[in-house]
User: Fold these one by one.
Assistant:
Number 1:
Amino acid sequence: MALTLDKDWWRQAVIYQIYPRSFKDSNGDGIGDIKGVTSKISYLQSLHIDAIWLSPFYPSALADGGYDVDDYRDVDPKLGTLAEFDEMLEKLHEVGIHVFVDIVPNHSSNRHRWFQEAINSEPGSAARNRYIFRDGKGADGELPPTNWISHFAPSAWSHESTQGGKHGQWYCHLFAPEQPDFNWDNEEVGEDFLTTLKFWADRGVDGFRIDVAHMLKKDLSNPLKDVPEPVTLDSNIAGNEILFDRDEVHEVYKKWRELFNRYNPPRVAVAEAWGKPESIHRYASPEELGQAFNFDLLLADFQADNYREIVSRNFAAATQYGSSSTWVFSNHDQVRPATRYALPLGSDLIAFKNSNGASSSYDLIRGTNAAIAAQMFALALPGCTYIYQGEELGLPEVLDIAEDQIQDPQYLRNHKIDKGRDGCRVPLPWTTSGTSFGFGSGGAHLPQPDNFGQYSVEAESGVTGSPLEIFRRAIALRKELMCAEELTWHETNNPELLHLSRPNGWHCVTNFGRTNVALPKNLTFIHSSQPLAGGELPGASTVWLQA
Ligand code: GLC
Ligand code: CA
């Protein structure tokens, strides 16, 4: 199947996220790599997906799992070479699969050539002006310049001496100290990212996932302003426009759009931006990136009224801006959905993670059923669906990673408050047994639990009713059923049931409850996330029907 030239191919696509270090290891060093992806193309094809998105594979010291980039225009030697990337891209394109790469524009790594130049240059120099360097407060500048906090540390400021600098200034990092924020008021920074986007687009990359797209522009007027107390990184809080979601950031993406439109088909992008649907969709307008992740379903409990409200609100916001909606339940930053939905509604996820998964009311069967039902619900919606590697296997979060094996700076640097994100980044199981369950011949860089083989591709392939086979069939059917980006809700008289349909008579019914319910009359069965029970839809399941 050749690659489509349809310029709107992405509007209702299924995009599969690969976290390269944990997907497939081709050379036995315990780290997934580019050749590993290439070796699994027939698997990707068997999922009937339209595209993959690769999390960063650029040279990196892995202070933040690769989101600390040393060089935006190269492949990490631990993961492969540019030639291997080109080969992977060509082979994916041959089978009709598009490729998104991850662009991390808010910050580089501290090993990036520009940051090294900055640290070794004078205050006020052009080299320092690519980042955010400031004098400290206090009699001797011993205090950070503002009260800004970081996602991975108490302060968003580190003293330059921690990086070998000798001029007594502080530099800003809204993530780890190894991730200095760029100064997006400096045109050179914007030019360099255009060069990077062009570099990958010229190689044939079809799209880009934009890391923390709402954070690039900050209010850098002198003196810098404190954010209102209590200090939070929540972009919805009034006053936090000093750091997030500023109007000027949209000028950046309008320029990117001009570049994307020079290609045929035009390149596309999806913003990772956090905030209200009404502001998030602005990033997704046709004048800007085209899509933005909608994380509302990911953050919601598995409840009918929640889901309906979220879908309606996001669909309206997307329509207003002319973008397509996106639906997301999972990614490399979030507790896997099978595990989230296994907990009682309203549970404290962080406390659950920190307890290594100790909870008497943890029901993984219900959680797994709900996760698959939720995805089948989303796959029936207008718009684009993202699936994170392992989600198609019903993989749960790995909850018992020992403290000395944790890699995530969210845990290591953030007062150890939250056990972090490693539990969803454990290398994939491909086989039921063997070294690292088929991930590679040399073990796995994060420990896999003993029972991981039961979730493997080998264990689930060809098994009727396995998560993998339910997903495969759902995605294949969805292609045949695809129609205009419209939906109609049908009243059900049951608060635990949602029923919607698409213009071509494709109906989707999801049962969020725990008891079986009768199906709507006069519709033909197409597919369901669990077998029907005496013609009825079991709790935590979704059925597709045809008028
Ligand atoms: C995004 C990424 C996350 C990373 C952060 C900083 O939220 O998804 O993994 O830690 O940005 O780049
Ligand atoms: Ca490897």
Number 2:
Amino acid sequence: MSILQVARIGNPVLRRAAEDLSRDQVVSAAVQKLIEDMIETMKEYDGVGLAAVQIHESKQIAVLEVEDNPRYPRKPRVPLSVLINPKITPLSEEVEEDWEGCLSIPDLRGKVPRYTSIRVEAWDRHGKDLNFVAADFHARVIQHEWDHLHGKVFLDRMRDLSTLSFLQEFVRYWADR
Ligand code: NI
């Protein structure tokens, strides 16, 4: 396994829609290795999610996991999951604002509105169908990753930039609010 370099904002790969995978592609050795490397890279940098475009691969793959994470303390656990070609449908109009950061936009945080409940249809890392409901922080992470797979980043989703903060200022002025 390898730790991969993370593309930062300004790199055009982050602004392109990623390509769907076929089931044959999913089970190929190359894509299986890519998934392993994405998981290792996400863990190395304390991410709660990582999209393939962030490691310069324009493919519809996202990995996520929320454990005890120093970048996002006190968040509910989400088991390690791999989402391929994900589709998401909001289950209500309810939206909540909360803080997000991104490994491709280092050291910045901002408040982003997201649907609180979504249905997720995707394939797992073996190409098997997944269909589940995600809520709250889990739903937030999936919407953030879905955005990456469509060339968007959290800055695009902020209602305005008034909460945009460097991490040090976030901790000083905003954490726990
Ligand atoms: Ni991100």
